[in-house]
């Protein structure tokens, strides 16, 4: 003879513990999912910032190398001389402050200074001053600025997501 389902032994002791365990596990899985989404979102923003900074750095580096090439061609055989933005020594020039003053609409800007006369002895190696026509110790400081600008729309002006200055010393 078969017993009815309701009369099985132990049925009175079950209180629905599996339901509580399943709900707790479901809440834990939901928290893990939300945390994973937040981490992925943060990593995506970090990657975007890295891309913008890298793009601005590559543009500034390219601009500095282009300026070095222009100096080299200007000083080549049969050429005259290269006119730097500043021919005299100016120890107060700060590339970082200079870059902050640049409007981002410029996107790229370069400044070249001739600094071979800036050493304490007056010459490139402090050995005296030669006439400018005989000076072979030409030294230039090239400061190149570039910005990675986010496009604007009708309501928001363009913003720079990354601003970079590359400051180099060039000996042609």
UniProtKB/TrEMBL annotation:
Residues 15-62 form the Type 4 fimbrial biogenesis protein PilX N-terminal domain. InterPro entries: PilX_N_dom. Keywords: Membrane, Transmembrane, Transmembrane helix. It comes from the Bacteria. The chain crosses the membrane at residues 20-40. This is PilX N-terminal domain-containing pilus assembly protein. The lineage of its organism: Bacteria, Pseudomonadati, Pseudomonadota, Gammaproteobacteria, Lysobacterales.
